[in-house]
């Protein structure tokens, strides 16, 4: 089954809408980053989530691009909006990179690799945040507590096995008392005959 064109309309389910927004937002920011690197352009994107939270991306920085758009004197800053004297150098290097990469074969392959690396970095950052949150929780068990818990589970398991074998023995004894094993009477009868 191949790709098919989806009809663009608002997603009705709020949870699905939030997930779609999150996935498409990262894709949009990746494309904007690629566009700024490949074409050497200054770019700014501001989007609002369904919950009205603003998200922005800018190269070299959202403040620089916004100031330029509003026809104010742009303040030199880095991608985080912090004052920097390296901004013109970065712009020149980006232009050189674009010129060099336009002549290089396999640029699409390099772009795909760059996108994959960026995705891996984002996933790693998310995992680090998750691990940090877990470590910050007060109810994280210590190693000694986990060992004690493991030992108590082993003891419980042994007790259950012992009780199960006792029950099996009791059941067997009850069955034997109700219905003697076939062949035992015959053997005892043969022994009596031999004695006589």
From TrEMBL:
Q: What is the source species? A: Medicago truncatula (Barrel medic)
Organism classification, top ranks? Eukaryota, Viridiplantae, Streptophyta, Embryophyta, Tracheophyta
This entry's Gene Ontology molecular function terms read: DNA binding; protein dimerization activity
Question: Which InterPro entries does UniProt cross-reference here?
Answer: TF_MADSbox (IPR002100), TF_MADSbox_sf (IPR036879)
Keyword Transcription included in the entry's annotation: yes
According to UniProt, the name of this protein is Putative transcription factor MADS-type1 family
- Which locations, inside or outside the cell, does it occupy? Nucleus
Q: Which GO terms describe its cellular component?
A: nucleus
One Pfam assignment: SRF-TF
Q: Which PANTHER family match?
A: AGAMOUS-LIKE 55-RELATED, MADS BOX PROTEIN
- All residue ranges annotated as the MADS-box domain in the record: 1-61
Main location class: nucleus
Q: Does the keyword Chloroplast apply?
A: no
Keyword entries, A-Z: DNA-binding, Nucleus, Transcription, Transcription regulation
